[in-house]
Design a protein that fits this description.
Layout: H1 2-33, H2 37-52, E1 56-64, E2 68-78, E3 87-96, E4 101-111
Antiparallel strand pairs: 1-2, 2-3, 3-4
């Protein structure tokens, strides 16, 4: 009788392990379908360039949010001579968790050669 009991416990344990492996595999597949941070950056730059006609020069801010991703992208808006007088702009870009652009807006415009004004408190 104890032999039958041990066999049943062994089978139950094996089924539980297989079920756990299956759930872990499904979780990994879902994670594998999400783009990596570098893929998100590339997609954001490409999508913004396609929409605005301006190439991104750099990404100055990048973070994961509850809904996806938020970036701040620097673009050349108007090229001038000398280059330090060219007009740059910062765009706030929002993407969903799949890396698709859901919105953008210009938050700042400035000359390339100018730094930000000092903020109170040394920031």
């Amino acid at each position: 009788m104890s032999n039958t009991k041990n066999t049943q416990e062994s089978q139950d344990s094996q089924k539980a392990q297989e079920s756990q492996k299956s759930r872990t595999s499904t979780d990994r597949q879902a994670a594998d379908n999400r783009p990596s941070p570098m893929e998100v950056l590339r997609q954001a730059r490409g999508q913004l360039a396609e929409l605005t006609g301006m190439e991104a020069e750099s990404v100055s801010s990048f973070e994961k949010t509850e809904d996806g991703w938020a970036l701040e992208v620097e673009v050349l808006e108007l090229e001038r001579v000398p280059d330090t007088m060219s007009l740059m702009a910062s765009y706030q870009v929002e993407l969903d968790s799949e890396g698709q652009l859901t919105g953008y807006r210009r938050v700042r415009r400035y000359e390339r050669g100018r730094s930000d004004a000092r903020r109170p408190g040394g920031r």
